[in-house]
């Protein structure tokens, strides 16, 4: 028996204790992946190989491999906390410009709005978004939270679904000309909020008058005025021009006649935004959409049921202040604003490797690319083999503490047993010396 065999066993058992101890120490480390000590036996060999009755020369540490199994994903409540459910790594850029890869999603924002790791030394990488919230899948960039206000947008369209009760009585407009101040001169009214280019809100009211069995006149006023700013009643006044809605015998809209143009869309042109102060209207100097506002009337019906209108859908809005951040499963970061709008401000990128075991641990629960790992592939979450993003959550360490404690006992027994072989070899050597 050789002292070297026992020494190699002591060395191997000591390394096993180190690996197990490191796993136990990181049982609460977010995104940590447990390691496993792998050993190989040693045989003396020549060019012709080993002999048939060769005795081994001990053991050595062949590798310390990491187990990239999924850890438990638990809610954390952090706004920028993220976990990967499935394959892939978050991509971070260190202060030296090198890329790092991690499963720890404990992120935060620095003073400039950049999303960094919990030590603030590396920035999360992803894809930027343009001013309209469209993701630009070019090269990776530092993801940054833009905390500026959302600029207003002038209204360009209105869309809704409604019904006009066919049982409503006909109003003779010769006897009762339309007057927005007299409810007996119109059958019903719909209100919609429009926005000018400065984000000012303006109520648009459409007054509907049943003039025949299957015909209705629609009068559109904004801020109580005609779209061009003239008064609809009083002196001086410009009587509003009606648009005639025609329905067939089944209650379906056949068309809207405005002047000589028939369509299912009512286009409001020449709108002059203004304000009303103490009953006096004045233009506010804001621009409106130069192409007009398209009011979709195609979904209006005339059935013998209650008159109703579903909430209208418009594309205009006032200035919005950022109120929150949401992250979906695809890793898209949505900023929500006080004007009920949301806008994509970026998208997280994940990395994948052909050989994850080839990654080099670099501390801070991160890894670096090596020749053995191969080059990374970058893509958005839920693409190919990449996992999904779980917002407001973190991935726990995948260390199984029970298994590690058992391995700790086994490594201790291995150490003691190898120490015993050295002690036995020493006793034999003493016996031989005494014989001489």
Automatic annotation (TrEMBL):
<keyword id="KW-0282">Flagellum</keyword>
<dbReference type="Pfam" id="PF22692">
    <property type="entry name" value="LlgE_F_G_D1"/>
</dbReference>
<dbReference type="GO" id="GO:0071978">
    <property type="term" value="P:bacterial-type flagellum-dependent swarming motility"/>
</dbReference>
<keyword id="KW-0966">Cell projection</keyword>
<dbReference type="InterPro" id="IPR037058">
    <property type="entry name" value="Falgellar_hook_FlgE_sf"/>
</dbReference>
<feature type="region of interest" description="Disordered">
    <location>
        <begin position="153"/>
        <end position="172"/>
    </location>
</feature>
<dbReference type="InterPro" id="IPR037925">
    <property type="entry name" value="FlgE/F/G-like"/>
</dbReference>
<dbReference type="GO" id="GO:0005829">
    <property type="term" value="C:cytosol"/>
</dbReference>
<dbReference type="InterPro" id="IPR010930">
    <property type="entry name" value="Flg_bb/hook_C_dom"/>
</dbReference>
<feature type="domain" description="Flagellar hook protein FlgE D2">
    <location>
        <begin position="163"/>
        <end position="317"/>
    </location>
</feature>
<protein>
    <recommendedName>
        <fullName>Flagellar hook protein FlgE</fullName>
    </recommendedName>
</protein>
<keyword id="KW-0969">Cilium</keyword>
<dbReference type="InterPro" id="IPR019776">
    <property type="entry name" value="Flagellar_basal_body_rod_CS"/>
</dbReference>
<dbReference type="Pfam" id="PF07559">
    <property type="entry name" value="FlgE_D2"/>
</dbReference>
<feature type="domain" description="Flagellar basal-body/hook protein C-terminal">
    <location>
        <begin position="392"/>
        <end position="435"/>
    </location>
</feature>
<comment type="function">
    <text>A flexible structure which links the flagellar filament to the drive apparatus in the basal body.</text>
</comment>
<dbReference type="InterPro" id="IPR053967">
    <property type="entry name" value="LlgE_F_G-like_D1"/>
</dbReference>
<feature type="compositionally biased region" description="Low complexity">
    <location>
        <begin position="227"/>
        <end position="236"/>
    </location>
</feature>
<feature type="domain" description="Flagellar hook protein FlgE/F/G-like D1">
    <location>
        <begin position="83"/>
        <end position="121"/>
    </location>
</feature>
<feature type="domain" description="Flagellar basal body rod protein N-terminal">
    <location>
        <begin position="4"/>
        <end position="33"/>
    </location>
</feature>
<dbReference type="Pfam" id="PF06429">
    <property type="entry name" value="Flg_bbr_C"/>
</dbReference>
<dbReference type="GO" id="GO:0009424">
    <property type="term" value="C:bacterial-type flagellum hook"/>
</dbReference>
<dbReference type="InterPro" id="IPR001444">
    <property type="entry name" value="Flag_bb_rod_N"/>
</dbReference>
<feature type="region of interest" description="Disordered">
    <location>
        <begin position="223"/>
        <end position="245"/>
    </location>
</feature>
<dbReference type="GO" id="GO:0009425">
    <property type="term" value="C:bacterial-type flagellum basal body"/>
</dbReference>
<feature type="compositionally biased region" description="Polar residues">
    <location>
        <begin position="157"/>
        <end position="168"/>
    </location>
</feature>
<dbReference type="InterPro" id="IPR020013">
    <property type="entry name" value="Flagellar_FlgE/F/G"/>
</dbReference>
<dbReference type="InterPro" id="IPR011491">
    <property type="entry name" value="FlgE_D2"/>
</dbReference>
<keyword id="KW-0975">Bacterial flagellum</keyword>
<comment type="similarity">
    <text>Belongs to the flagella basal body rod proteins family.</text>
</comment>
<dbReference type="Pfam" id="PF00460">
    <property type="entry name" value="Flg_bb_rod"/>
</dbReference>
């Amino acid at each position: 028996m050789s002292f070297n065999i026992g020494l190699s066993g002591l060395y191997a058992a000591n390394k096993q204790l180190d690996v197990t101890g490191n796993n136990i120490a990181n049982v609460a480390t977010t995104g940590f992946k447990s390691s496993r000590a792998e050993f190989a036996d040693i045989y003396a060999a020549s060019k012709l190989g080993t002999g048939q009755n060769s005795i081994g020369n001990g053991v050595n540490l062949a590798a310390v491999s990491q187990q990239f199994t999924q850890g438990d994903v638990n809610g954390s409540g952090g706004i920028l906390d993220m976990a990967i459910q499935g394959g892939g790594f978050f991509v971070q850029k260190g202060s030296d410009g090198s890329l790092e890869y991690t499963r720890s999603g404990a992120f935060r924002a620095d003073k400039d709005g950049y999303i960094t790791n919990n030590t603030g030394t590396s920035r999360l990488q992803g894809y930027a978004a343009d001013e309209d919230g469209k993701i630009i899948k070019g090269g990776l960039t530092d993801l940054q939270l833009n905390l500026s206000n959302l600029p207003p947008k002038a209204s360009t369209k209105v869309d809704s679904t409604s019904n006009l009760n066919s049982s409503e009585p006909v109003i003779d407009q010769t006897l009762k000309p339309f007057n927005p101040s007299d409810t007996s001169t119109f059958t019903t009214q719909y209100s919609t909020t429009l926005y000018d280019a400065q984000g000012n809100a303006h109520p648009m009211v459409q007054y509907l008058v049943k003039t025949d069995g299957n015909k209705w006149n629609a009068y559109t006023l904004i801020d109580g005025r005609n779209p061009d700013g003239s008064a609809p009643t009083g002196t001086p006044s410009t009587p509003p021009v009606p648009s005639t809605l025609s329905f067939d015998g089944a209650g379906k809209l056949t068309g809207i006649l405005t002047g000589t143009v028939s369509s299912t869309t009512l286009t409001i042109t020449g709108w002059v935004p203004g304000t009303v102060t103490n009953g006096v209207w004045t233009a506010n100097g804001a621009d409106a959409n130069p192409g007009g506002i398209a009011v979709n009337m195609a979904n209006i019906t005339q059935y013998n049921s209650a008159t109703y209108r579903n909430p209208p859908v418009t594309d205009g809005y006032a200035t919005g202040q950022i109120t929150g951040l949401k992250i979906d499963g695809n890793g898209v970061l949505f900023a929500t604003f006080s004007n009920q709008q949301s806008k994509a401000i970026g998208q997280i990128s994940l990395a994948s490797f052909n050989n994850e075991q080839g990654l080099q641990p670099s501390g801070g629960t991160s890894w670096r690319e090596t020749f053995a790992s191969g080059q990374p592939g970058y893509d958005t979450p839920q693409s190919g083999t990449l996992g999904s993003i779980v917002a407001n959550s973190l991935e726990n360490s995948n260390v199984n503490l029970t298994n590690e404690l058992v391995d700790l006992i086994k490594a201790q027994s291995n150490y003691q047993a190898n120490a015993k072989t050295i002690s036995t070899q020493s006793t034999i050597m003493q016996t031989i010396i005494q014989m001489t």
